[in-house]
Structure formats: structure tokens, C-alpha cells
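Let's practice the habit of predicting before peeking. Look at the sequence and jot down your guess about where helices and strands might fall. Then scroll down.
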Amino acid sequence: MSMNRFKSIFGIFLITTAIAAADARFVLHYDAPAKETEPGKGRKKGLGYIQTALPMGNGRLGAMFSGGVDSEHLMMNDITLWMNAKRGQDAAAQSSARQVAPEDFEIVRQAYRDGKYGTKEGSMETLSTEYVSSSEPLGNYAPFTDLFISTGHDPAAVTDYHRSLDSRTGLGTVSYSIGDAAFTREFFCSYPHDVVVARYTAEGAPLSLTVRTSTKHKTTMLKAAGNRIILTGETKMVQDNVEFMQAVQVDAEGGSVKAQPDGSLMVSGASEVTIVLAGYCDYLPVYPSFKGRRYKKDCFQTLETATAAGYDTLRKTHVDDVSALMNRCRLELDFEPSGLTTDQLVKQASVELENLYFNYTRYLQLSCSRGAPVPSNLQGLWNDSLKPPWNCDYHTDINVEMNYWMVDPANLSESFRPYVEWMKVIAESGTHTARETFGIDKGWSMGLNGNVFGFTAQNVHGRRAQQAGHWLCQNLFDHYTFSQDRAYLEEIYPILKGSAEFFVEFLSPWKDGSLVVYPTWSPENTFLAKEFSKLNKQTYGAAWDQQLVLNLFTDCIEASIVLGCDAGFRQTLQAMIPKLCPQKIGQYGQLQEWPEDWDNPKDTHRHISHLIALHPGRDISPLTTPELYQAALVTMAHRGDESTGWSSGWKTCFWSRLHDGDHAHKIYQFLTSKRAYPNLFDFHPPFQIDGNFGGAAGVCEMLLQSHLRSVNPDAETIEDAAFIAYKKDPKNPKHFIPVVPDETLAAAPYILHLLPALPSAWSNGKINGLKARGGFEVDIEWANGNLLQATIRATRDSTCRVYANGKLSKTIALKKGDSRVWK
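Done guessing? Here is the structure:
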């Protein structure tokens, strides 16, 4: 063999290997169709459609495809379609808030002050249920429709079957052979055209298909005419049913399409078939009616526009749209591709799986949260059940917040807009809950559960009484820290201020004089279980509340400084911060979950809410609060490693913030290989998408952190430079008092910490396009566990400091578009 020929062959080998590695990082692929859920089997009993079909979505409209040989099943979802709730009430009633007389609320609070634990009559829980809880219906997220495409093909006759989803392009494919004939399908859900598209092609045999559709709800019309199927229906509500419409158009090349009396379409003798689906409901995010969309007109108009564009245009605009977002941030770890199908790959831990999981989760994020008036829910966008687990709702004690931890670090900031729009509704509704239930005329209140109709009331069970405004607002302000967009800050400031105004009135002096939140719990944990039962959850001054109130007050102070407003209110917050209940280190060296030292070292509960100041907060760090850092380590040791899917995602973030990359990686390994279904949906169990998003956020935290700020530009060490939010109480070394931020904090540069928790298993790799607070994008490359270089690009005029290899840089100033290479 000549040297030139050898070089040519070797070059082809390298290219082939590179392509295989790239595919392994982004493509889910299988050698069999998805499973259909057997009748009568719930999600907790084996694998079914939702765990094995492959998801698509444009933020509002979603679909999953099964790849069935004889019958393709496309499940459709509209993220605004709900059922079993109320809408169209008067403004106060629409909040679902319980009307509580001030004297009755004082009865409830007195039980807390008297320590009436447990669940017996007169306890904190029973009185909260009696006086504060709402029995109004929350409702649940609903499935939309199902589309079935029958081929008449015999699965037993199929060879070379392949089903895949490419997260780089958002294209799903199915291909197989029967004898000498080859059949292919392509699926996508277009954001630019707001439709689901399927394309069938055949070589060596004609296509004969039957296309039919149905819904699990009441069907008010099902009609096929020409080459279209029109379905209208309504979901059952307690008040004011939600109406919806779906329109499907089928175009066949080289064949015919005939409408059938049963509402289906029959395709005969075609070489190519294109199916385009549009669908809407009458929901609009207008409080308190939540209706008014011209859904029928929109449905027809969208279908006309999409079909007039043609398949090639639909495909190109879709691929261009998704690829632009996916290419912003790419994780490339070093591994040899296994060649395993994804359902086999997920059965054991590997770097290949970990890389694929992160990139795929970015695809899930842009697919289930973009361009819609409501955020992703417990299952993102995808639901096939009339009775989904936990109503497929918005849980505010971590889940909806966790859904959005990764959007900015992973450079998908557009995905945050649905959360903002929903928060505007929550703040409007919450003013009624604050007034009706808690007697507070300023600001707004939110409980444990939410829906798309402005539900802000307290949970039906008194043991789950809580406030959520402080945590919900943390996400809002953190989004600003990445963009530094003043117009956005002006938009959200009334929401931030409203939540702070509520807590200014709601906080109450405790026996030691400190200000605490109550009624409350530490989600969803129990204390003194032996004495008062495992349902003993209601408390006062829980650590998570106190940490989040400090976070909220600090954010409001900064926002008011940046915007040049509300100096008087800013002073009110500054005066209250030192009075907040301190953080405490308990008898085992742990960070106390409750104001009393009730923690049980054998408690392995999935919620670790008292570490919110570690993550997603910013106030506990190995670099700034050594005593609280050590206490957090003790707490993490108590809670253990193995847990639910979403909890594993959170623990990945915790260990990253604790700068223990190998421990973070251990949890991430468990999440990806032990808490993922064959389609890589996270399971609690059952399916909850927050674990996907929490895990991806943890990967970002392993590679780049930017939550600390430099308030001392002359300091040479990060310990001396960074703002510290808690100081030791001179009267009690185990107590840590909240610190009032100096007003210069608003202009303090963020510290970009490169590779703060790099796992040893990821010794070589790179990531492009991570975002950092302060308005930066960062590319990082490393080898043998050491930083090779980082490129820092400014998305606006800004300053930062860089912390890497134990050294802190001077302040770096960059103009928008400029970059700095760090080695």
C-alpha cells in the first residue's frame, strides 16, 4: 500500500470516528419501536409509551412519535390545555384563596407560638387546614389529541429497523426495509410555523396509509373532507370548559387521498406523503377569564401558511431554528463511541451517556419552554394521561424553579420568557390571596401549587402551608444577572417588590425577637416524627424560608439601586435584614433545617431545602463561609447519595457548589444511568422532567460558576474580595446573622470560576457557549484534568474577575463583542 493511499484511508477513518463521536453526543437511536402503554397499567408499572416514545416540541405544541411499524402513534400536547379547574370567576375568586378573618389567622399563628405539633385537634396542621387551606379545584394538565398512521406493514417482515432523534436538528426519523422495499419517515415540530410535520417516503413499493385522529376528551366534531381532518372538542372544567381544535392536512405525491365517513383519510399508491398538523385551544393568559383566543381561525390560518410553504421550506426553517440554538452550547467529552442503542446505553454508567444526556436535555428545554404564555410543568410538555401524577402541575417547592436553573448557564435564555409571563399572572392573582387569606394589602402571595388559571391559594392540606414568592422571584432576578438587561429588570421589578412587600408584612417576631416566616414547613420533610408522627411538618422560621427572604430582600435592594427608585422601601429592607432569624449549626455539626435543633442524622429525605443558600442561592460557599460550608458537608453526608431523579439533579448541583467534582459526578452518573427511562426522560419515579434540567444545571456548575461577586477590587484573594452574606454572631459562634449589602454591590463585578468541580472521569474535554453572570459567554477546554484555555466574550460592556487554579485575576473590563483568552 502506498503512503498516499494509507494517509487517505487513515484520514477517512479519523473523519468516520469523529462523525460517530459527534452522533453519540447528540443522537438518540434505537433498533425497535416504542412500547404502547397497556390498558390499565399506570406509569409506575413498567415501560410504556411516555417512557419510550421520542419527544418533539416548539414550547407550546408538543408531540411524541412511537415509530410503530404497522401503526405510528403521534401523541399531541398543547401546554395551555388544562381540565378540572375553574376560570372566568371574579378577580378575587379566581385566585382560589380562602377568605380568612384576621382573628382566625391569629388563632392559627398562636398554635405555632404554643408549639402545637402533630396532627391532633388544635395542632398547627389541623388549624391551618381549618382556617387557611383552600378546597378549590386546582385541576390538571391535559393531553390534547392522538394521531395514528396505519401502514398495513407486518412487523415480522421488517429488517434494518432504525428509530432516532437528532437533538442538533430536532429531526426524528424511522427507517426499515421489507423485502426489496425501503421506507422512511421524518418528524419535527416547527417553532417558526407552529405545526407538527411528518413525511413518509417509499422506494420499491407504494405507500398506502390510513390517517385517523382522536382525543380523550369530549369530541364535538370529527370530520374528514378532501385531504383534511378537522377535530374539535372540549376539556371538562368545573367552570367554563376549554374548547380546542386540531386540523390535519395530508398531501400525497403519486397517489390519492380520500376522506372516509369515520373521519379518517385513506392514502393509496403514493411515493411520498406529507402530513401537517396544527392545533390550538381557546386559552389566553388574561386574568381572570383565561380565554379569548380565536383558536379555530388560528388553526386554519396556521395550516394554510404551513402547507403553502411546502415541506422543504418547513424542514429548512425548522432545522435552521433548532440548530442555531443547539450550536450555541456544546459539551464534548472524550470517549470512544460504544455503538450501543440508547436503551442499552442507559443501562450502565458511561461518559458517552453523560455527554448525550446534557446535550439532549438542552434540546428538551428549548422544546418545552419557548414562545408560550406558561412555563414547562412537571412533565415539561408531554402528557398522555387524564390523571397525570401530581396533576402535572406547577409545584413551587422546587420543581418549577428547577425547570429553569439551566436556561441561562446553558445559553437558552429565550426559554425563560414563558416563566416570566406566568409570573405576571401569579403576581396579579396573588394580590387577592395576600389580602383574602393573610389580611395583607401590599404585595402578593403564592402557595405550594399552581396552574395556568392563576391558582395562588394555600394547599388543601394544612401540613403543606407555605409561601413561594421568594423562591419564584429568585429565578426572575437570576435571569437578570446573566443578561444585565435594564428593560427586563424594569419589567420584573414590580413582581420582585410585590413579593418583598408581602414578606415585610408577613414576617413576625419570634420568641427570641428575630423575624420568621410562619405558617410554613421545610418542604416536604418531617421533624420529631417519633413524638408526633411522620406527618408532623408545620413549623416556623424554617431555614429555607429565611435564606430566601434574605435573597429576595438583597435582590430588591440591588434592583432599586440599578433602577434609581424606591429609596424608602430599600431602607425598610436594609433595616429588616439583620433582624431575620440567623442560620444555625446544630449538635451534629449540620446546618439546621429548622430553628430548633431537630435534625435527625439518619434522615435521608429527598428535599434538602435548607441548603438553598448553597444552590440555587449564592450565600454559602467553600470560599466565603467556611463554617457554613462544613455544616453543609455534614448535611449532605446525612442525606446520602441515592435518591429520586430530581433530587439527584439537585445533589449534582450541591456537590458542584461544594467543589467536589468527583462526588458531583457520582451523583450525575446515578441520575443518568439509574434514574432515566429509555428515552432519557428523568423519573422520580414516575416521569418528572425537573431531574433532567437539574442534572444539566449541575454539569454547568461543574465547569463554570459565577455567583460570587467581588466587592473589594484591591483584594488579591477570593476570600477577601467576595461579598459575604452571613457573619458569625458574636454572642453565639454557631449562629450566622444575615448581612446588609452595601449599595456598591449593585455594581460589583461577578467572579468567573473556571472548572470549579471538574470530575477526574472527565479528564479531557471542552464546552462552548456557557453563559456567566455579568453578561459573558465562555468557552473552556481542558486536558489531563487541567485548564488549557478559556475564551471569555462580552455580550455587553461589562467587568469581571477570573478565578482559576486558586488564583484571582484583577478586574477585567470588556466592551460588547470583545473577548479575552485565559490560560
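How did you do? Residues 6-17 have pLDDT under 50 and may be disordered.
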